[in-house]
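# step 3/5: fold
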Amino acid sequence: MPTEAVPLRRARAALAGARRALAPESSGLRAGDATIALRDLALTLDALPAGERAAARRLLARPTDGRADPAGHGWGPRAAPRVRCTAVLCVHWASNPASADSPDLADLSGNGVPDQVDLVLDTLVSVHARLRSAGYRAPLGDGPLGGDARTDIYLADIGDQGLYGYCASDAPVPVIGANARAAYCVLDDDYDGTQFPGNTPLENLQVTAAHEYFHAVQFAYDATQDAWLMEATAAWVEDELFDDVDDNRQYLHRSPLRQPRRSLDDRGRADRADALRVYGSWIFFRWLGERLPTAQGGLATVVRDIWEAADSTGPHVQDHSLAAISTVLRARGTTLPAALAGFAADNLAPAASYDEGRGYPAARPVAALGVGRAAVRHRVRLDHLASASVRLTPATTLRGRGWRLRLRLDLPPRASAPAAVVTTLAADGTRTRHRVALDRTGAGRIAVPLAGVRHVDVTLVNASTRLTCWRGSRFSCAGTPTDDARRFSLVARAVR
């Protein structure tokens, strides 16, 4: 989001979005959390007229603000708030058993603190320690808000509103960077199985604590960053910190694995089902971490380095997520087009391509064609950061020695960053990958042996990152893509 004055219409859209995100739902769990909606509201707050600005501040209120929080997350006047802190964070809870927001107050440990609060605190301390050991910045202090500058976590009964948890910012803009923010977070008080049936209460606490606390860390770099990067990497870190839970697999059916022809940075539309799209792109960061496995504190450093490149407080500020990712990949001797091509090709066979890929759905070819001596053709149009694969199966009589598959590709010009890879699958399961060299016009030719080959996958990628930013779109930098709906075509035939 640009630093210049925010138009009133954008601020009002953010206010409406925050109201929707916090509105009670009667049809099960919310498709996404409220963090990004509240982030957008905090960033546009000052553009609202006085009356609407006051309403926005109430939406950003903390549970301890009581009735000043109109989203229903405010504790009542008899909540009897208590807090327990470590050196870096504090957990706040309602200690009155009559309060709907109080957690289970049983204290079997006898330390004067409910066991549920101890569990939340221990989980968050573990999350914080793991992220710090991996080299991530700590969340920014919020001054006297919540009692002192430590990061505040509040427990409230938000499961009945379809929320696992969320983070928001109500702190003044720090002097270290115009786009960095302090954050507080709210987690459900108990993760009751009737409200959260997908996992155990402990598992839901673990992945939500990892996801939301990572948002607080992201805010310390750049709270204005692209929503897809924020949500995708927060979903990624869930499985990195709590590998046995696998809650983020639920998003893969709306990810590049199942929707390769949708742009990787697509935030999704506002409707309930499509909102899951922003989480599904976590699989790209899993792929990067497995292909670029240098790690610190048990986490692949490539994701941390992307956030450092996206840092709004440093000397080399990147405009948006795609610029940051491109910068980091170049420093590692590769490019975003090369990475996207390998990613798209590997997604056709996740069981063979990812450490946990047996549990992932596979991408499906856009077309499956038989290949003989006569030429076969296929055309497809691709948007930016999207891909499509064509599966070519040679006739049985053409799988002997001497036969080759000759491919002629006609892709968009090099300036729009097209890419293509060819993968052959042999009868013994061996996969062989070939990168297709393209000239400046986007033309490329390649011939691959057909001896013992079951099929050949031709993966076509539109890796363009060219956008006209700040146009209100759902893509990176809210930009309008320059290279959407580009035509990709191929001609294939068997030759000797």
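# step 4/5: annotate
The chain has twelve helices and 18 strands.
# step 5/5: archive (pending)
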